[in-house]
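User: quick one, fold this
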Amino acid sequence: MKVFKVIGKLDRIDLNILNDLQNDGRLTNVELAKRAGISAPPCLRRVKNLEDQNIIQSYHANLNAGALGFGVIIFAEVALSSQNDADLRVFEEQVQKWPMVRECYMVTGGSDFLLKIVAKDFDAYQSFLSAELSTMVKVAQIKTRMVIRAAKKLPGVPLEQVQI
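Assistant:
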């Protein structure tokens, strides 16, 4: 994961813009400016600056997986038999090719990676596990946890903790 240094200093208006966009990325610039208490042209410049600094990385819709027929969410801890950089990168490159893997994090502890896998059903997940993930060279151990329900699911970061 890349860590980006914030160029320049954020102020309360920037944080308001970030908070509003984090909660609703479809806000128009006019509405965003109104909420931030500034006019539209400077608001647009601020948003562009936040994008240029890579603070705003993308815009997307938050889809309801269940409504689209994806009823199974699995978190899988994957331990490799080797932790040399080349083997870690090979695994990360392979993960990019698996559509069911929606998130992948290199982690500390007993495993090397934590994957979030979304599947239509348990059979689809089991097929992926058997034919793809467990057959990958250097995968030594896989521990999985199936999600029963989400008790909390918030996008982004806790902006109220950003100090200005």
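User: anything notable?
Assistant: The two ends are 24 Å apart (CA to CA).
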